[in-house]
Design a protein that fits this description.
The structure holds two protein chains of two kinds.
Chain A lengths: L13 H36 L1 H8 L4 H26 L3 H31 L13 H37 L9 H25 L4
Chain B lengths: L2 H37 L7 H20 L7 H24 L24
Helix pairs in contact in B: 1-2
Classes of the chains: A mainly alpha, B mainly alpha.
Family (chain A): Belongs to the cytochrome c oxidase subunit 3 family.
Pfam families (chain A): COX3 (PF00510)
GO molecular function, one term (chain A): cytochrome-c oxidase activity
């Protein structure tokens, strides 16, 4: 497929177009880092003010679900980068296989998270009058837990929809995936969602285990 | 070229392209196993810094190789570092605020008899 099809106005060369797309995505990702950073900061401060209560609450999260989900996202990052590399070489069937694997791994993450949420609700780990732990500050930890994992899940859902959309477009044919900036830029977003989880994992699952 | 030889060269090409990413993937999984083991080793105050250092190592691998910062123009690295710079500013200014508050403004952990009597922060 000709790379000319991927070139859009106002760019004169594909390289410039790809660089601009990557720069735009990186600027957006920097804003995402700050968005999540505020929540990480809030948790850090509360942890300093109420160290014992936060650690007591951190022991209540399910480390098995958290670890499996971390592994799933790390593998999905590998399949995403392979889809991008296969696209550069024009290997359509490999691109489709890796994109499908990436979306499937992301979906597995969300399904497991759903089971984990069900268990958390069953164990009264939602902040409120029926909360399991009696130290009030322990509720702060779970306030952050629900918001941060929830916002992360929303990001992952958007990423899965985007990957699936490009899967369909490439599968149908006519989409110039070799030269297009779409896959590398989508990859950047997917990897950032992975990086956020890489930091959520020690914050929410590894504290207070000893 | 027959379809069969083409698919064979495609596979060889794909393997050549994937090798590096697979090595990074294995390293990431090894770091995950390491951080999980360390979480259960009693190290006192060191447990949290160790787990965040491993998380930072994982993030660095993903950013350098999967997000291609290692082979990208400096412009992209600059955009990425700009995010980290403002994040560092946010943390530095906030974390220097709390320890330096006057006695009356300090937040201490209260021991309330029931939920709802705790101070707002």
């Amino acid at each position: 497929m000709s790379n000319d099809a991927a070139l859009k106005e106002p760019f004169e060369s594909l390289d410039r177009q790809r660089l601009s797309a990557a720069l735009g995505m990186w600027i957006f990702l920097a804003s995402e880092v700050l968005f999540f950073g505020g929540m990480f900061l809030g948790m850090t401060i509360y942890r300093q003010i109420h160290p014992d209560a936060i650690m007591e609450a951190a022991r209540e999260t399910n480390v098995l679900f958290g670890s499996i989900n971390t592994a799933l996202l790390l593998i999905s990052s590998v399949t995403m980068v392979l889809a991008d590399k296969a696209a550069e070489k024009g290997l359509k069937s490999a691109v489709l296989a890796f994109l499908a694997a990436t979306a499937a791994l992301g979906l597995c993450f969300l399904v497991l998270k759903g089971f984990e949420y069900r268990e958390d609700i069953h164990e009264h780990l939602v902040p409120g009058p029926d909360f399991k732990l009696h130290t009030p500050a322990a509720q702060l930890f779970f306030g952050f837990y629900w918001i941060m994992t929830g916002v992360h899940a929303v990001h992952l859902t958007i990423a899965i929809v985007a990957v699936s959309t490009y899967f369909v477009r490439i599968w149908r044919g006519g989409f110039p995936f070799e030269g297009s900036a779409a896959l590398p830029v989508l990859g950047l977003y997917w990897h950032l969602v992975d990086i956020i989880w890489i930091f959520l994992y020690p914050l929410l699952y590894l504290g207070g285990r000893t | 070229m027959t379809a069969q030889t083409r698919s064979r060269t495609d596979r060889a090409e794909l393997w050549r392209l994937s090798r590096g990413s697979l090595v990074i993937g294995v390293a990431l999984m090894a770091l995950l196993a390491l951080t999980l083991v360390f979480a259960y080793v009693p190290m006192g105050a060191w447990n949290a810094p160790v787990s965040y250092a491993i998380a930072a190592a994982k993030a660095l691998l993903v950013a350098a190789f999967f997000m291609k910062l290692k082979s990208s123009p400096a412009l992209l690295t600059l955009a990425a570092l700009a995010g980290l710079f403002w994040l560092a500013t946010l943390f530095a200014l906030s974390l220097t605020d709390y320890p330096f508050r006057q006695a009356g403004e300090r937040i201490t952990a209260p021991v309330p008899s029931r939920i709802g009597t705790e101070s707002p922060l």
